[in-house]
From TrEMBL:
GO terms assigned for molecular function: UDP-glycosyltransferase activity
Record keyword Nucleotide-binding present: no
Name listed for the protein in its UniProt record: Unnamed protein product
Transmembrane segments: 580-605
Entry-linked CDD domains: GT1_Gtf-like
Alphabetic keyword roster: Glycosyltransferase, Membrane, Signal, Transferase, Transmembrane, Transmembrane helix
Residue ranges of the region described as Disordered: 628-651
PANTHER family: EG:EG0003.4 PROTEIN-RELATED, FI06409P-RELATED
Biased composition (Acidic residues): 629-639
Position of the signal peptide: 1-26
InterPro entries listed in its UniProt record: UDP-glycosyltransferase, UDP_glucos_trans
Length: 651
C-alpha cells in the first residue's frame, strides 16, 4: 500500500506540472498582439484627433465669472490636396538585355502616352531603346561585361550540355556582377535631396536587376518586380509543378519527380556564393542582409508576364499578378515602332509563298495519313505552301553541325524558310544553301510581330525565350522549340505540354530529326488549334493594360493589403511550432491520463480479487506467524533428534 500511495502521488504531481505548462503555453499562443499592433490603434486615434481639429492636451475653458466665452479656436488646417498619380515619377529599371527590357519598354511607352510621368533606366547600350519608344532615358552606366566577353560566355553556355552550369553563369557573371555598378550610377540620380527633379515615387524593376532592388531599399521607395518569364522560385512551387530550371514536362516520370524535389535544393546551394556577394553589398550599404534566398523577393509585388493556359495551374500569392504577355497596345507608340510595314521585296516573297504547292515529302506524309477522322484522331492539313520562320534570338550561339542539321531538315522545296541570323554567326552556315532558304540579319526594319502575323508563316522555329514564344502563340503559330539557355527549356516544356508545339534536344539535332518534327507540325492541325487556343488565353489575361492597372493601383492604394500574414508573423508562428508544442503537450497529457487510469483500474481489480479470495478461501496467514511456525517446527526437530541420539547405547 505504501508503494501504491507513493506512485499515485508522483503521478499526480507530474500531471499538475504538465497542466500548468499547457496553461502557460496557451496563454502565450493566444497573445498575438505585438508592439506594432499595439501602437497602431493609438496612432490611428491620434490621426483621427488631428483630422477633426481637436487638441489632446487643450485646457478646458471654465472661467469663474460665468462667462462662457473662450478664446477663438485656431482655424483648422487646410487639408492637403491629393497628388494625382500621373504626376508622380515612375522609373522603370532593367539590365540591357532585350528580353528583360522589352516588356518594361512597352508598358512605359503606353503609360507615357496616357499622361504618366515615366523614365526608363538601363545601361548605356540600351539608350537607343528608350529613345525609340519615346521614354526619357536615365543612364545606369556601362554594361559590366564587354561585348566580346559576353559573346564568349553565351557561346560557352550554348554549347554546354548542362543547363545547370548556364544558370550559375548567368547569376554569377551577369546579374550579380551588374548589381553594384547600377546602384552607384542610379543612386545620385534618384535620391531625394530637395533639388532633384528625378526623385522617384515608384520603381518598376526587372526581376533580374537585383542592384535596383537594393536601390529601392536604400531610397525607401516602393517597388514592383516584373518577371518576363516563369516565376523564379527555389522550392516554393508545388511538387506536381515542374521546378524552375528543370525543363521537365508535366508528365514527369518517377525519376523526374525525385529530381524535381532535389533540383531546387541543389540550385539553392550552388547559388550560395552569389547571394553571399549580394549580402556583402547590402552590408556595405547599411542594408539588412537577406536571411535566406527566399527573402530576395519576399513581400514584393510581382507582375508575371504569363498566364494559366501556358503556365501550369498552381496557387499564387496575392502579391503575384499574372497578366500574360505584354504586347504593344494597338495604336500606341510601341505598336507604331514595332509593327511598321515589312520591306516590299520581303512582303512580295511572303505573299507568293501562300500559293506555292506542297513538297513531295509533305504530300507523301499527307497521303499516308488516314483521311477519316475518328474520336481522338487529329485532322491532317491539306493547305499548300507556307513559310517556316526560324529565329533563335541573339543570345544563342549554335555550332556548325547544328546549323547543318537545321538546313538539312528544312530543305524541302517549295517549302520556304526565313532565317533571322546575326551577322557574326554567318560563319557557321554550310557552304551551299538551298534556294528556298532566305537569311536576314536582325534589323529594326524587320518587324517580328509583322512577320508572325503574316498568313504565309505556318510554323516558327524558336529558342523559346518567353517573349518570343508567347508572341508566336498570340499570333496562332505552332512552335518547334530548340531551347538553349536558362529558362528556355522550361518554356519549351510548357509549349509542348499545351499541345502547341514540339521540343527538340539541342544536343541531338540531325536532319531527319528536325524534318520529322517539322512535318508533324505542318500536317497535324491540332498543333495550330492548340496554339490559337493558348494565344487567346494569354491575351485574356490583360497584358499591358492590366500591368498598367497594377502599377496605378500601387501608386494610389499601395499593396500592403495583399501581403499575407506569413510575411509579417514571427517565424515560429509561421512554422506552427507553438501549435505543435500544444499538440505534443496534449498528447503527453493524454498518455499520463491513460497511464493513471490503467493504474487505478489495476489497483481496483487487484483489491477486488484479493477481497474475493479472502471471502472464499479465508484470510491468508500473516507472514510473521508463518515464519514463527517454521522456526518452532525446526526447533522441535532438533530436540527430537537430540533425544534419539542420547537414547542410543554407547559402544
Amino acid at each position: 500500500m505504501a508503494r501504491h500511495d507513493h506512485l499515485q502521488s508522483g503521478v499526480f504531481r507530474a500531471l499538475a506540472l504538465i497542466s500548468l505548462t499547457i496553461l502557460a503555453l496557451a496563454t502565450d499562443v493566444t497573445s498575438y498582439s505585438d508592439v506594432s499592433s499595439i501602437s497602431t490603434p493609438s496612432a490611428s486615434f491620434e490621426d483621427a484627433v488631428e483630422a477633426t481639429g481637436w487638441a489632446v492636451n487643450a485646457d478646458v475653458c471654465l472661467p469663474d465669472s460665468g462667462d462662457l466665452s473662450c478664446p477663438a479656436a485656431a482655424p483648422a488646417p487646410t487639408p492637403a490636396v491629393p497628388v494625382d498619380p500621373r504626376e508622380r515619377h515612375i522609373v522603370f529599371v532593367s539590365i540591357a538585355i532585350k528580353g528583360h527590357a522589352l516588356p518594361l519598354l512597352r508598358v512605359a511607352s503606353e503609360m507615357k502616352e496616357r499622361g504618366y510621368r515615366v523614365s526608363f533606366a538601363t545601361h548605356d547600350s540600351g539608350k537607343e531603346w528608350a529613345h525609340a519608344y519615346g521614354v526619357p532615358f536615365l543612364s545606369a552606366g556601362a554594361f559590366p561585361i564587354s561585348a566580346e566577353d559576353l559573346r564568349v560566355k553565351l557561346r560557352a553556355m550554348t554549347r554546354d550540355a548542362s543547363n545547370f552550369r548556364g544558370i550559375l553563369t548567368m547569376f554569377n557573371d551577369i546579374y550579380v556582377r551588374a548589381a553594384r555598378p547600377m546602384f552607384d550610377a542610379l543612386l545620385p540620380q534618384l535620391e531625394r535631396n530637395g533639388s532633384n527633379g528625378n526623385a522617384s515615387d515608384l520603381l518598376v524593376l526587372d526581376i533580374a536587376t537585383v542592384g535596383a532592388q537594393d536601390l529601392a531599399h536604400k531610397l525607401k521607395v516602393p517597388y514592383i518586380l516584373n518577371s518576363p518569364s516563369l516565376l523564379f522560385d527555389l522550392g516554393g512551387a508545388p511538387s506536381y509543378v515542374p521546378a524552375w530550371g528543370t525543363g521537365f514536362s508535366e508528365k514527369m516520370s518517377l525519376w523526374n519527380r525525385c529530381m524535381n524535389i532535389l533540383f531546387p535544393r541543389l540550385l539553392s546551394v550552388a547559388l550560395t556564393p552569389p547571394f553571399m556577394e549580394l549580402n556583402k553589398m547590402r552590408y556595405e550599404l547599411d542594408l539588412p542582409p537577406f536571411r535566406s534566398q527566399h527573402d530576395l523577393f519576399k513581400g514584393a509585388r510581382v507582375i508575371l508576364n504569363t498566364a494559366f493556359g501556358l503556365e501550369h495551374p498552381q496557387p499564387l500569392s496575392p502579391l503575384v499578378e499574372a497578366v500574360g504577355p505584354i504586347m504593344p497596345v494597338p495604336g500606341g507608340n510601341a505598336s507604331r515602332f514595332e509593327r511598321h510595314p515589312l520591306p516590299s521585296a520581303l512582303l512580295s516573297w511572303l505573299d507568293t509563298s501562300i500559293e506555292s504547292t506542297p513538297s513531295l515529302r509533305l504530300r507523301q506524309r499527307t497521303a499516308s495519313s488516314p483521311r477519316s477522322k475518328t474520336s481522338g484522331d487529329h485532322e491532317v492539313d491539306t493547305i499548300t505552301g507556307g513559310v517556316v520562320y526560324l529565329n533563335l534570338g541573339t543570345m544563342a550561339y549554335i555550332d556548325a553541325w547544328q546549323a547543318q542539321a537545321l538546313v538539312e531538315g528544312l530543305s524541302d522545296p517549295p517549302l520556304k524558310v526565313l532565317w533571322i541570323l546575326p551577322t557574326d554567326q554567318r560563319g557557321i552556315l554550310p557552304p551551299t544553301l538551298p534556294t528556298s532558304l532566305v537569311i536576314k540579319p536582325p534589323s529594326s526594319s524587320l518587324s517580328n510581330l509583322e512577320m508572325l502575323s503574316h498568313p504565309a508563316v505556318r510554323l516558327v522555329v524558336s529558342h523559346c525565350g518567353m517573349v518570343s514564344a508567347q508572341e508566336a502563340l498570340v499570333m496562332g503559330k505552332p512552335l518547334l522549340c530548340i531551347p538553349f539557355l536558362v529558362d528556355q527549356p522550361d518554356v519549351a516544356a510548357r509549349v509542348a505540354d499545351s499541345g502547341a508545339g514540339i521540343s527538340l534536344d539541342k544536343n541531338l539535332l540531325s536532319g531527319p530529326y528536325v524534318h520529322a518534327a517539322v512535318t508533324e507540325l505542318l500536317t497535324n492541325t491540332s498543333y495550330t488549334h492548340a496554339a490559337r487556343r493558348v494565344g487567346s488565353l494569354l491575351e485574356r489575361a490583360g497584358g499591358a493594360a492590366r500591368a498598367i492597372d497594377v502599377i496605378d493601383a500601387a501608386l494610389r492604394l499601395g499593396f500592403d493589403h495583399l501581403a499575407t500574414l506569413n510575411l509579417t508573423a514571427p517565424w515560429h508562428k509561421t512554422a506552427l511550432l507553438d501549435v505543435w508544442a500544444v499538440y505534443a503537450a496534449l498528447i503527453c497529457l493524454l498518455a499520463v491520463f491513460v497511464r493513471v487510469q490503467w493504474l487505478l483500474i489495476y489497483f481496483l481489480v487487484s483489491e477486488s480479487f484479493s477481497l474475493l479470495c479472502n471471502v472464499v478461501f479465508g484470510p491468508p496467514l500473516p507472514p510473521t506467524s508463518m515464519a514463527e511456525g517454521y522456526d518452532e517446527t525446526y526447533e522441535d526437530g532438533d530436540e527430537g533428534s537430540g533425544c534419539s541420539d542420547t537414547s542410543q547405547p554407547a559402544h
